[in-house]
């Protein structure tokens, strides 16, 4: 019988830990919006990023991936934040191997994928941190790996570092179908958020929409507002 490791899961993964909460409902709404956007063209590989650190990218990526898996999508969550990887912390799993190891043996990438806490959710944690994350993000091997992941899964959700601090996410956007930008209410200046968006549009990344994180609504501890389309943050 498999070990029950559910106590290691961070309670902030509310889609799993508090499915009836307002925040969990907002993540499911985000999932629904994403599904509708897929009508306009292939939308399998989706990156979550932000202008500045601490916006809520990792929480958004993990909760969205859980919501997608719960809706029956065969989903893989990839931690491409090689600066401050969080996926293994949030799910309480190991990180001895992962994305960076898969890149050294791309033909065996599936060996580094682990099962998430629910059926239909796979995890590719960051793996050991390399000295050259930016170069890795723009390497042809990375593009090839994501291409294979895109063929193997219904949805590939990718957590990344912030755009304004590092070039990683901008480079990675070229291998993916679309980008969700997370903006944390009252946390960053509008100017910095716009700068992040600009860097992505300069390389023709498809910006799918903005998630406005950490807005208090109805006295709930976590509340999220989401927007899609051509809205400006
Ligand atoms: N809506 C929220 N309410 C309360 N705490 C939040 C909320 N969103 C994020 N946090 C907390 O803020 C911190 C940063 O969140 P998270 O790690 O998801 O951000 P990030 O954008 O991935 O950060 P980084 O740039 O370091 O990768 C975490 O401690 C997280 O639990
Ligand atoms: Mg993060």
Structure description:
The protein is an alpha/beta fold. It has a single domain, classed as 3-Layer(aba) Sandwich (Rossmann fold). The protein contains 9 helices and 8 strands. The chain has helices spanning 14-17, 22-37, 57-70, 87-91, 99-104, 133-137, 140-152, 168-173, 190-202, and strands spanning 45-49, 75-79, 114-115, 121-124, 155-159, 178-184, 207-213, 224-228. Strands 3-4-2-5-1-6-7-8 form an 8-stranded mixed β-sheet, with helices on both faces. A hairpin with a 5-residue loop joins β3 and β4. α2 (22-37) packs across α3 (57-70). The longest helix is centred in the N-terminal third of the chain and has 16 residues, at 22-37. It is globular and about 45 Å long. The termini are far apart. Bound molecules: adenosine-5'-triphosphate and magnesium ion. Residues 12, 50, 53-59, 81, 84, 86, 162, 213-214, 222 line the site of adenosine-5'-triphosphate.
**Mean pLDDT across all amino acids:** 89
Identify the CATH architecture.
3-Layer(aba) Sandwich
Q: Please outline the major beta sheet.
A: 8 strands, mixed
- Beta-strand segment tally: 8
> What topology, given as strand order, has the largest sheet?
3-4-2-5-1-6-7-8
Percentage of helical residues?
25-40%
What is the structural class? alpha/beta
CATH homologous superfamily assignment: P-loop containing nucleotide triphosphate hydrolases
Overall body shape? globular
Heteromolecules bound: adenosine-5'-triphosphate, magnesium ion
State the end-to-end CA separation: 48 Å
